[in-house]
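Final report, section 2: Outcomes. Of the targets proposed, FMN reductase is the one most frequently requested by collaborating groups, and we therefore present its record in full.
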Amino acid sequence: MITPAPTASSAAAVPPVVAIAHHSGFGHTSVLAEAVREGAADTGATVHLVKVDEITEEQWALLDTADAIVFGSPTYMGTASGAFHIFAEATSKRWATRAWQDKLAAGFTNSGSKSGDKLHTLQFFSVLAAQHGMHWINLGLPSGWHSTTASENDLNRLGFYLGAGAQTDTDRGPDGVHKADIATAEHLGRRVAAQAAVYAAGRAAVAA
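The predicted structure is given below as tokens.
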């Protein structure tokens, strides 16, 4: 029996797979990872959370088969955490085989100060994605909290465009992650999943 090739409409109906590869030193970034997961899942995507400091061979395989990978880490000393850097270097095996070529990628980070050089962490993620030949998905939001009529509860209250940036007071636990930053991370998850679905449908249409 010959199985017909999938049409663009049938391929589009298959939920995209989004993997969130993250590290969290004190739990704050895990809160954001969960928010990204919820946002992506809201669109119907299949979502996997992968803690990069505990990654297994099975989870490496999940990353290899995902349509999109969202990178997440706290910002320590102006860049991603050491644990995330170890993971990033370990992805060189995937780089050598181009295993992640043309996947979608995005990123999020948290630090104790409003800026905290979080942009450098997001840039690190985007360069990592570029090394793998991935396509970067930005936050897709205007900056919030930038006028007298704006509010710290605005989406993208910290004004990052490359990815989702969050700020949590250093003397507060994971329950202190700002609600607007959680909502911004949820937005990122929805955006990545939606773009992954569009990308899959387009690829299927071209192949048809």
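Residues 1-11 have pLDDT under 50 and may be disordered.
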